[in-house]
Amino acid sequence: MSSWHDKGYEFLSELGLEERSPGCYVNGKWKGSGAIAQTVNPANNKMIAEVTEPSIEDYEEGVQACYEASKIWMQVPAPKRGDIVRQIGDALRRKREKLGRLVSIEMGKILAEGIGEVQEIIDMCDFAVGLSRQLNGSVIPSERPYHIMLEMWNPLGIVGVITAFNFPCAVLGWNACIALVCGNCVVWKGAPTTPLVTMAMTSLVAGVLKKNNLPGSIFTSFCGGAEIGQAIAKDTRIPLVSFTGSSKVGLMVQQTVSERFGKCLLELSGNNAIIVMDDADIKLAVRSVLFAAIGTAGQRCTTCRRLLLHESVYETVLEKLLEAYKQVKVGDPLEKYTLLGPLHTRASKENFEKGGGKILTGGSVIESEGNFVQSTIVEISPDADVVKEELFGPVLYVMKFQTLEEAIEINNSVPQGLSSSIFTKKPEVIFKWTGPRGSDCGIVNVNIPTNGAEIGGAFGGEKSTGGGREAGSDSWKQYMRRSTCTINYGSELPLAQGINFG
């Protein structure tokens, strides 16, 4: 009997997974001739399965096949491409709970978040289906008689997608759903610590392609490490590379891609603040801060890391927040009522520390087999060096301010510029906050948390967050190339008047 049965993992077989599997899908088949890696459950640090990672030879075979398939896929009409993505969404719906459970087991986020992550991809599929009939260009008035100017949008060919562990499948969805309807093939490198999610998602997409008699190499995936990521960044067959991860690595990816005049879409670090004004709905603010600070054990790029409290509500908000933190259940992410699961890796647990300031609650690791730490609140100065850095853990830095201008200055004082939020009822505060002298982030919220972005809006940030935009709005334009086309439907060229050409 499989050891998966003893661990409660038998459902993984229904996702096309095995206890030892090849970890790359190239040219329509599974293979892997590289090193053997183990994936573990962060709740107990015990092995789930073994995966054979790809070699550079596997990579070359996969991308070359993907390059050839791109010549076929880009000629499929966009609404038909949309129908393929619709079928992917339907397949996800049928496996939503099981995929969500896998995300929880392998990544560590609580079950509701795991299922919610899969739902994000389903929503992106729905969004992309509609988009497939709206990839519209423009007609531009020409200054020349009997001429017309058009903007045409065409596929790039291949989009490389490099995703991180904290959203092991949702970030793929934000990119791949749009890339596919835009006529691009996809080369995906999932996080090396979440290979089972990568493989389960790939199996699902591959099944849809096979059902429609399309080349499997339209969607190519690798469960590899930095070597595969570097190969994608250097590969001239991949015009666009979408990278999600740290600012440090993102900068290296950008430099490598730029050296070959490729395009980058970067979703990097966050260091997000919630501002609570003196007129805020305190109950709403406290609930929002709790959700934003401890969701995914603080391992979201949109996690609230800095809480800025107006001096008049400082003590009231802190008192209510500390009381709420006492009620947070830490433990197995699959158990009901668990709000704080483990950090993703043992190294994250070992490196967990407050980094300065006065601890108001938490601050320590929890002795257990898993990677559990206490949810932590630290009172600190906004000028402290540690406040300028991104921290992937459930640590909330609290600081005090007197005026709106001061709060905005603190919000904007860090290198990162992803998400931000203010709690207030005053229209003049709201419009200053969202205006040119307000938050400098890509996501600027009012009376909601910093996390929980909707797929209909463009997702991304400024400064060292990278400047990329994924998902909704007009983000699709990043996945296509634009041509300005001028058509002469007359018989004369204005500059040729008076010359006889015979």
UniProtKB/TrEMBL annotation:
State the Gene3D superfamilies in the record.
Aldehyde Dehydrogenase, Chain A, domain 1, Aldehyde Dehydrogenase, Chain A, domain 2
CDD domains from the UniProt entry: ALDH_F7_AASADH (cd07130)
Recorded GO molecular functions are: aldehyde dehydrogenase (NAD+) activity
Q: Does the keyword Oxidoreductase apply?
A: yes
Keywords associated with the record: NAD, Oxidoreductase
Aldehyde dehydrogenase domain location: 37-483
Q: Has keyword Oxidoreductase?
A: yes
Primary enzyme class: oxidoreductase
* Reaction(s) catalysed by this chain's protein: an aldehyde + NAD(+) + H2O = a carboxylate + NADH + 2 H(+)
- Catalytic residues identified in the record: E267
Partners and quaternary state? Homotetramer.
Membership in a protein family: Belongs to the aldehyde dehydrogenase family.
Query: What PANTHER family does the annotation carry?
Result: ALPHA-AMINOADIPIC SEMIALDEHYDE DEHYDROGENASE (PTHR43521:SF1)
Name assigned to this protein? aldehyde dehydrogenase (NAD(+))
